[in-house]
Amino acid sequence: MPSKPITVVLVAAILIGGAIAGAAVSGDDPSRQQVVAERGAQVMPFSLDATTHVFDATAQGGTQRVVANDPDDTREIGLIREHLRAEGDAFSRGDFADPAAIHGDDMPGLDVLQAGFEDIDVRYRDLPDGAEIAYRTDNPDLVSAVRAWFDTQLRDHAGDAATGPEHTSHPDQAD
Fold first, then answer.
1. Which domain holds residue 133?
2. In angstroms, rounded to a whole number, what is the distance separating the alpha carbons of residues 77 and 146?
3. How does pLDDT run across 43-87, given as a tens digit for each residue?
4. Cα angle vertex 108, ends 103, 113, to 5°?
5. 110 contacts 149 by C-beta, under 8 angstroms
6. Which of 20, 44, 55, 60 is the most exposed place for a label (fewest CB within 10 A)?
7. Do the domain assignments include residue 174?
8. How many domains would you assign to the chain?
9. What b/e string do you get for 136-173 counting C-beta neighbours within 10 Å, with b at 16 or more?
10. pLDDT per residue as tens digits for the range 85-111
11. Is residue 18 in some structural domain?
12. DSSP per-residue letters across 19-36
């Protein structure tokens, strides 16, 4: 049986280690954002530094846009369009593997979106400076899942992401 001072040190070390581990998985943690950026570079063909993700959660779902920071950067715009066109197609089939690969399989809203994909109208559209995917549904659980999913991406992409003019955060994910 360890002596009392050693037990206190061990307990303190375990608590500190747990706090550090918890911070490492927090969406607001810079190391989490770095991990997401590294994973994103493996999945998204465009540069996170040259683009901005815009999330606009609405009463019927929401819209996610990716736009080039330089509206004359035709290379990035082409890569954005190629990627979002493929993602929109995948999402409409219930395939959310890419967001899971970037943000983790336990990403808020992801399991509900995968299970209810048939009740979500997913539409891709070119924009002059990038592209967007719109998500529309009358199912309140799916609307809530879209909001939670968007809010996680906003936190994880931090400086490379913004909210749109109509964005409303999920009540459990509000900043």
1. 4-163
2. 25
3. 888 898 899 999 999 999 999 999 999 999 999 999 999 999 999
4. 100
5. yes
6. 20
7. no
8. 1
9. bbeeeebbbbbbbbbbbbbbbbeebbeebeebebbeeb
10. 999 999 999 999 999 888 888 989 999
11. yes
12. HHHHHHH-TT-HHHHHHH
